[in-house]
């Protein structure tokens, strides 16, 4: 599953880190998590702890989008077979489906084909009525993939706004507050289109804290964010948005455009949402693998966030403590964390948050600590790498590494040092996964003596 395996160094610590990554990502694949959460018994559909009587509906439809949406639809087809009548998902990680149409879109910046796929999705939504049960397959990446520019906003406006937001350092709550108010589908507006159908959201969460209104910008979730909130984000990060976007947000804030529907809106009377996997799904299985390999696992948090290079420094400090004093765990140990770090882009290079995390960590690593950091969807930033894997031998010239960080150009830096992790699209999207493998001091000393 983890590509480039043979090209990576093969020390035990690297193998342990890669095994944790591989098992963690696999644990979050829809084929596994949907089978655990969704079941059919006669006419009774179970989704998590809720049941639905399929006998009460004429149509069972799958609609949605996100990096993993086609894999969610495939897993739903595997459970429900020909009970599914039709559907449309928009994704950049397609797979063959029986009754659901897969439309390919683009991520992280929306594209023409994503707009076309979303048009088909909305058309299918408009055909739903009170006798329709909609399974909404929603995963991270959905905000870019399900692109439905609202009002006078063009695709080019949406692309420019997305680029600027992604480079601003704003977090996903802030980014999506803006995207929801530039869209005809986000922020519960797909639920509005679907009413009075019954809607069952089946979500994979790549958002710290699992806020339903933020995962893929919450197409079928109540939204409490406002046009004013969107304007605040634009001001706070000094984002230069196209005129059509600025006009819409300004007009919306005066009440001239209806707000996205909130939790008291009757469009949600027949909507329920179920998160079937999140960052903890990944970390739990990665921990089990670490334990099987003889390392004491410690999950630090599923909620790490902030600037990637700074988060790396904090993680390294914890790993150093483990190595030096055995606090809070004794080596051999594996520290794990999830969440999502961000990068404030000032240069014009290639890279992503996990590659910056790995490069920044590598600048100060002592012997005995190996660090792997990946985005579980396999695509870190706008590069084709999932992330990086580093140890104290990776950075031979700290100035060079710092220059690469300053230029946001760590992809070529890590590539030259054979320190990229490449998986290709993984079929899931459950945020970042970071693994710190910390060897016993004696083993670490032995390694440096051997060199
Ligand atoms: O909004 C998105 O598309 C994200 O990736 C967060 O879920």
From TrEMBL:
GO molecular function, one term: glycerate kinase activity
Keywords of this entry: Pyruvate
SUPFAM superfamilies: GckA/TtuD-like (SSF82544)
Alphabetized Gene3D superfamilies for the sequence: Glycerate kinase, MOFRL-like N-terminal domain (3.40.50.10180), MOFRL domain (3.40.1480.10)
Domain MOFRL-associated: 17-250
Pfam annotation, one family: MOFRL
Cellular component aspect of the GO annotation: cytoplasm
MOFRL domain location: 334-432
Protein name: Hydroxypyruvate reductase
Native source species: Natronorubrum thiooxidans
């Amino acid at each position: 599953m983890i590509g480039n395996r043979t090209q990576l160094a093969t020390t035990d610590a690297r193998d342990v880190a890669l095994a944790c990554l591989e098992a963690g990502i696999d644990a979050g694949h829809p084929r596994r998590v949907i089978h655990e959460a969704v079941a059919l018994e006669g006419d009774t559909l179970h989704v998590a702890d809720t049941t639905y009587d399929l006998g009460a509906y004429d149509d069972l439809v799958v609609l949605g989008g996100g990096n993993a949406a086609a894999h969610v639809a495939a897993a739903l087809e595997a459970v429900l077979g020909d009970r599914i009548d039709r559907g449309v998902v928009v994704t950049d990680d397609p797979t063959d489906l029986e009754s659901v149409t897969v439309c390919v879109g683009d991520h992280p910046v929306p594209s023409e084909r994503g707009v076309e796929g979303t048009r088909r999705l909305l058309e299918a939504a408009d055909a739903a009525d009170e006798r329709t049960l909609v399974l909404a397959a929603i995963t991270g990446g959905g905000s870019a993939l399900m692109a439905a520019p609202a009002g006078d906003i063009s695709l080019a406006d949406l692309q420019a706004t997305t680029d600027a937001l992604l480079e601003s350092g704003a977090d996903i709550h802030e980014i999506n507050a803006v995207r929801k108010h530039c869209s005809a589908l986000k922020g519960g507006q797909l639920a509005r289109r679907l009413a009075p159908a019954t809607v069952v959201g089946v979500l994979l969460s790549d958002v710290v804290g699992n806020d339903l209104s933020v995962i893929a910008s919450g197409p079928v979730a109540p939204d409490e964010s406002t046009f004013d909130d969107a304007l605040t984000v634009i001001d706070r990060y000094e984002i230069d948005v196209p005129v059509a976007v600025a006009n819409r947000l300004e007009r919306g804030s005066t009440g001239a455009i209806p707000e996205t529907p909130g939790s008291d809106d009757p469009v949600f009377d027949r909507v329920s949402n179920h998160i079937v996997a999140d960052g903890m799904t990944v970390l739990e299985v990665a921990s089990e693998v670490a334990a099987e390999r003889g390392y004491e696992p410690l999950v630090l948090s599923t909620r790490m966030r902030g600037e990637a290079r700074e988060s790396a420094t904090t993680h390294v400090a914890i790993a150093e403590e483990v190595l030096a004093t055995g606090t809070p765990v004794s080596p051999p140990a594996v520290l794990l964390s999830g969440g999502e770090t961000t990068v404030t882009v000032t240069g014009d290079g290639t890279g992503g948050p996990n590659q910056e995390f790995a490069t920044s960590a590598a600048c100060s690593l002592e012997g005995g600590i190996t660090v792997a950091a990946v985005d579980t969807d396999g695509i870190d930033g706008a590069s084709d790498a999932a992330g990086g894997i580093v140890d104290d031998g990776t950075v031979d010239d700290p100035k060079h590494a710092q220059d690469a960080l300053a230029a946001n150009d760590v992809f070529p830096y890590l590539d030259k040092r054979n320190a990229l992790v490449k998986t290709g699209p993984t079929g899931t999207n459950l945020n970042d996964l970071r693994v710190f493998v910390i060897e016993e001091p004696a083993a670490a000393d032995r390694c440096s003596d051997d060199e």
